[in-house]
Design goal:
Length: 193
């Protein structure tokens, strides 16, 4: 299995970075994972802005030469792991900008003229690892699971990815957040998956 880990947090002293380290530690101990690539969007200086003008048209996004290396990573990956915080009930703007630019028509999906497109990223799976300051039940009870609906239905199912697993950890800034236990849970998952 080829594993692409997309890390989205500007601080390498963060809990998100600790989750990234546990993903890598567990994956390196897993004989089923052959290769690992890490894309740190902030460190990479990824430009999340969409630009459309007379030189760059939306319908040509899937061929933008500036993004070919990132498209190749997505093609290469069997499993995509996203590590990010939940800010304002959703992933950071940097990750959403990556999604806007990368999951383009002609690359991630193809319109068929019907209600839903043909997903072109079939056969891949995704793991979303997110943490937030608020309580763990907050997204479900207050936001009607908007984060998971956004990621699973509006994005991944749309492009053909049906296997989506979530580790959504709440109360992460609390002394009672059981951070070590949750880090261990992520490590064990990637060691055995």
């Amino acid at each position: 299995m080829n594993l692409l880990v997309i890390y989205t947090h500007p601080n390498h002293q963060s809990l998100s970075y600790a989750f990234l380290q546990e993903v890598l530690r567990g994956s390196r101990e897993n004989s089923g994972i052959k290769q690992i690539q890490v894309l740190d969007l902030y460190e990479e200086g990824f430009d999340p802005r969409l630009v459309f003008n007379e030189h760059k048209r939306r319908r040509d996004m899937h061929q933008d030469p500036e993004l070919e290396r990132y498209r190749e990573q997505l093609r290469w990956a069997d499993r995509i792991v996203l590590v990010y915080p939940i800010w304002w009930g959703r992933p950071p703007a940097m990750l959403l900008g990556y999604i806007d630019r990368m999951f383009a028509s002609g690359f991630a999906y193809r319109d068929k003229g019907g209600l839903l497109p043909e997903g072109l990223l079939k056969g891949k799976s995704v793991v979303c690892i997110s943490s937030m300051k608020g309580p763990g039940g907050y997204p479900l009870l207050w936001l009607h699971n908007a984060h998971k609906v956004l990621m699973r239905k509006a994005l991944f199912n749309f492009v053909g990815i049906r296997k989506v697993k979530f580790f959504e950890f709440g109360s992460m800034e609390s002394n009672k957040g059981r951070q070590k236990e949750k880090l261990e849970k992520v490590y064990q998952y990637f060691r055995k998956v």
